[in-house]
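ok so dumb question maybe but i'm new to this and my supervisor (M.) told me to 'just get the structure for FAD-binding domain-containing protein' and walked off. so i did the thing. is this what she meant?? sequence i used:
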Amino acid sequence: MESNQFKVIIVGGSISGLSLALMLEKNGIDYIVLEGYKNIAPQVGASIGVLSNGLRILDQLDCCQPVLDAAEYPVDEVFYRDSRGKLIWSLEDYAKDMSERHGYPAVFLDRRMLIEILYDKIKDKSKVLTSQRVQTIDNNDSGVTVHTLAGQKFTGSIVIGADGIHSTVRQEMWKEAQRLDPKWLDPSEKSALPATYACIFGISEGDNGPEKGTLTSVVNEHFSYLIPSGPGKRTYWFLVHNMGQTFYGSDIPRFTKEEEEALAKKHWDDQLTPTLRFSDLYTTKIASVYTTLPEYVYKRWHFQRVMTVGDASHKFEPLTGQGGNNAIETSASLTNHLVVALRGSKTGTLSTEEISNIFKSVQEQREERVSGLIKASHTRQRLECMETPLLKFLANHVLPYVPKSILLRRWIPVYSAGVSLNMLPMPRKPRDVAYFDERFRVPSSRGIFGIILYAAFFFLAWAGRRQLWTAGKVNGTWSLVREAVLAQTIPLPGGVEVPLRQVYTGLQPIDRILQSLVTVFLPAVANSSAPEQALQSLYFLATMLPIIAILTVEGYRPRNRWTLLASPALWGVLYQLRGIGMIAPIYFAMSIFHSASVGYFTPTSRTIPVSVAQALLPALVLGFVLPTIMMFFPLQDSLSSRQVFIALWQPAPIYVALLTEIVSRGIKWLGRSAPVRLDDQFGTSVCGDLPYLRIVYAAVGGISACFHFALIFSWIASGSGFITRALIPLDSFGQVSSLADGIFIFFRNDFLLVAIATMLWCLTSTWDMYRMGISNVSWQVGCAGLVFGCTAVGPGATAAAVWYWREKTLSRTSFGQHPSAST
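this is what came out, is it supposed to look like this??
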């Protein structure tokens, strides 16, 4: 695209300024860069961390590999140490984790090195002028004119201020706004810039630095260190301290070299590692600066034809390294909006109103993200400076036990929400986590609907308690159970009295529980006078099979580790004793609580060990299907033997959990399984557990569907009232005439409640993937599909089908196609 009538004046040869220049050049947009220093890349003693979200854009600009080469050593180990240099916590394989998850590692290099790389990539060097410090800016309806201290003036269509926290462009923009529209700016902005911390940052060179590829944080009370290793023999370091109060605006102090040296002497003997002191770094420094660390997001980034980017609009505290990376992001956002507007312009230029709308859109896109990241950076700095007794306790006693998986999940929105260039091809980098602009839509929160979902599940749990236990008490079912246990006989329809077995395990407390459970189950299994009751029991258990399979799989997800969802056996005990219609909604509520964030929906957090996926189907068959068959299998002396099989069936969910663990360990021991990654025909990365899990869902769904078909055929054969008799209790609180009738009411309520809760869970899961941009199946389509599935194949098979689809969808790492250059 060529746009010779539109010209951008970029003030400041900074990272944001030069990256913007390179972006404009690649899109054929005319520009000029005005740099105040005599050299384009002066050595000011600063280093910079380039992270995944920044490297991704630099990769589009052909700058990524030069940055990686210049940095030499990606960060591979992260250390947190206390004031004595003792290790508190460490994170190994950081480079591998970042590259696998986000496509790029984190690297540190001199700031001037990155500026030189950006400058070298600019083809027309005549457009980058040095010794051109801006003095004033004139704004009019057709363009802008910039006057410099060198006595020159430059005319263009817009001015972009990439000139840092003390931006001259911002000052000129404020003057113009005050003259033309005083209400545009908040008067307090001029003194709103806050600074709580100050920092000596520097570069040392020598053999006494930390090991290469390391990033060390040292926590102390009211001060901290950040020490990244650099290329060659370089070490970068930051000594950050709390100034004792927060200064604002013009009251923010500036420090002399003598003040820097005095502060350095104060910390001379600080232990950074067991073998490294601060004095070791300071005495080998080649550059250092002592400065305050303002942190702020300005309320207005633009006025008419003038806009600020980078530190001039959003200033970061350096601890998290996001300042430079987000400066590149804002330049990319501005380029995206400019290119779209200019491509749609018939004249090749833009009006002041159109430009203002572009600037407004850029700020709207970027403001929330940078505000959140700046706040997070400040929070982390407070933690590392242990500003309160609570933060000191967290740093010393909680941080060492934070699982690596939790941190990796929390970092996903930090990197994946980054902006990229819409019009340039995105180099293909294998990674597990899709960036937000590669998804069908930007992930969003559940909002008020999340609260509604929690309320719905807890209402279902309450309804379960009411319909299962309160109703059983009111209608006399539980009195009949107690009477049968005390009389040691179980009454069946037709006047049959079956002696209740007294011994099952030989352990009296367990046998007493089993006696009650056998008394409850035997009438449902052996009621030959009401065939719909036995069919309902089989149908109910067939519906439970996919649910048990899903709960077992969820128990092995990395994302559910350290939660109660990781214990399927525990949930099995609870719903066997209290009814799955009451317990399942509680499980589902806990599941949606843990799945609220974007970090939950990543391929690596979805994947379970391949050996577990291979073991699951045999475990389900041996642990649940076989005991269920034995419970209904006709045998001689069937009523007596059936009690044994009913008792044997009760721990079936626990059998499944134990057998899954045993069989999977056996598979691993035999060497029959290995965690592999495959590529499907579309080049989409999938996990080795996926084929086995899909077999499991197909099998359990097929079994459940067969019993649904049996129910439908029985309905057709028996008349219109069969479904009502089999599934719907008309009066749960009316006095029952027999134990069998009371138990039938209990199981019908139990089934209806778990079916409703499971379908709501499936709908929530479908909607979650839609709101996370992982699928294009909306909740309306999902709801229609669930209704059709329940009618056609039943709730159990429908749940299995949802998880069958869900596994494949969640294993993908890209969902749409990143916009690329078009002709």
